[in-house]
Design brief:
Chain lengths: ~160, ~160
DNA sequence: ATCAAACAAGACTAAAAAGTCTTTTTAATA
DNA sequence: TATTAAAAAGACTTTTTAGTCTTGTTTGAT
């Protein structure tokens, strides 16, 4: 039958957010090595469009997740002390807002425990679990295995 | 601080898919009452744009999830025997394809158990749980409490 | 002081998703 | 068999998301 896709790319995070998470991990990894990195390098390493990556990094700076140093020799970095403080949740909220955390799975405004949509009770534990994971996963967790070469950011 | 959203509406299902699920539940509920319903009625009841709803219903017909009867007195319906056979998974796949089921949370092509992205091991159980729930939740489950007035499709 | 190498900001463009409109096809019924 | 009420089909428009380009600002090094 093979009918082509109709609506698309429904995944947890927006594409922008995916780039943001990858970039943050890369910067943290370089920072843990004492190195500062620029947009060009980051975009190359995480395979993202360079000017768009610039935009996303700006946003991460405003959200206080990464630091930027302007001027010659500048770049982006994250102080190591912050690795355990920065959570996946922070990045996701900074980029995608909190729809993922709040929005009804069927798009209903009034959906709640008291007035649930037909999928509410099945969906709720899944989302709570996701929220907990995002809240509990720090940048330190993410880069640990990345630095040791057991996880990857390629393709 | 109040910086406005940057990237948006990241939830599990596309908006189109949300409408599709709501529409399917409504049609099933009417069918369980022996009633056939038309686009106008459906759009009104699930609060979705009428012509767009038509498009979505067409797609659900092609995917064999709902039946359509053309001509005067026609409309949409779902045979009751199918209520337990039709799963949330079927609707989601028909509309959103299988990105939600397969795609790496960070957008990496090559991510797998063998070559995981930094979030893979934390994400996998969440997704597996979601998949299981979508696989196990039938239309019969969804309309049971809806028909009894314990769940809602409003707003 | 000047220059060059960075990031910042904002206007702009492109692509994808969401939504509309018009015409055609179907089928019940008067 | 003409009418009418429905869905189907497909071209079209709008909005949102993704991505680009140009210009400005900052700052270290010469």
């Amino acid at each position: 039958m093979e009918l082509p896709n109709f609506a698309q790319i429904s995944t947890m995070f927006s594409k922008t957010c995916e780039y943001a998470i990858r970039a943050t991990i890369y910067i943290a990894s370089e920072s843990s090595d004492g190195k500062r990195c620029g947009i060009k390098e980051i975009a190359r390493k995480i395979e993202s469009p360079e000017p768009f990556t610039g935009k996303i990094l700006q946003r991460l700076v405003k959200a206080n997740i990464i630091h930027s140093i302007k001027g010659n020799g500048g770049g982006f970095e994250i102080p190591q002390e912050e690795f355990t403080k920065i959570k996946m949740e922070d990045i996701v909220r900074a980029i995608d807002g909190d729809d993922l955390f709040n929005r009804c799975s069927l798009g209903l405004h009034e959906c709640s425990d008291d007035q649930p949509c037909p999928f509410h009770h099945k969906y709720k534990p899944i989302r709570e679990n996701l929220k907990k994971t995002l809240r509990d996963t720090s940048l330190a967790d993410l880069i640990l295995k990345f630095n040791s070469g057991d996880t990857y950011l390629k393709l």
